[in-house]
Amino acid sequence: MDIKIRDSVKDFYAEAAVTPSEGLCCPIGPDPADVGHIPKDVLDISYGCGSPVGLAGLKAGMTMADLGSGGGIDCFIGSKKVGPTGKIFGIDMTDEMLEKAHKANETVSKTLGYSNVEFKKGVMEEIPLEDNSVDVVTSNCVINLSPDKGVVLKEMYRILKPGGKFCISDVVAEEEVPKEMQDDKTLWGECISGAMKESDFMDSAREAGFYGLYITSRYMYRVVEGRKFFSITINGYKLPKGEECVYKGHFAIYNGPFSKIHDDEGHEFPVGVPVEICTDTLDKLTAEPYCTLFSIVEGESLLDNSSCCPPTDSKGGCC
To answer: Angle at CA 265, nearest 5°, toward 262 and 268?
Structure first.
């Protein structure tokens, strides 16, 4: 980790915690219904580029980790969604932000009537949580602040339970960010200097082990020196593979709308054609986000996946 960049970002957001900066606030905010229980001073320092928690499909009893939690807005949104049987961890490295978050947590807990949010000091490259311990990882315009994004993604994979997912909003660049912009401390804090190209981000997520990557939102974030930067909300899934490929008579039929598709492992699925699959691929295709795309045949029987829902469903009612 580049210590100079980390210290620069920490100083930038320490000041932003004390003196709210409207220029860092996201023009696309969370649903007003999700923030009525959150103190105004937290909303005033809610810096981001999207609203990932509202799109994460959280359900009662889930455990969520929010990276770069700042004043805690996304943690408090998540707190209401997972309810008293759930758990939210907020991870941040800036003392000033953590102080605000801890204070607000007392107010939010009293308003909701339960306490399920815990803030921890730490960095994304070394997340202070156990392996396989959370259902969902979120972050809001934070991963671009790390020069070691591959390490961050591997840490996210480590702490997720098998079948867990990440839902993050972040800034990506249309083209490679030039060195002179990468050396600009202010642009680092403003989520510009550390932005990756979208394709590079996708490649890094796959290298970390994630499957089922898809974008739920994309909009123009800023134009800096003639270069376009976009905010995206991206999802990815931890779907571990077995030690060997075992076939037990399962076939996947791709339902369309394309004439054929390929998965991340090179399997080809022509529309309407039964393709024999191993048990690893079976587990993958019957899970979110693939489950609505395929019908699965086992012997002479069609497996029921009627409880599955589209991956863009943000209500968290199924899958």
So the answer is: 30
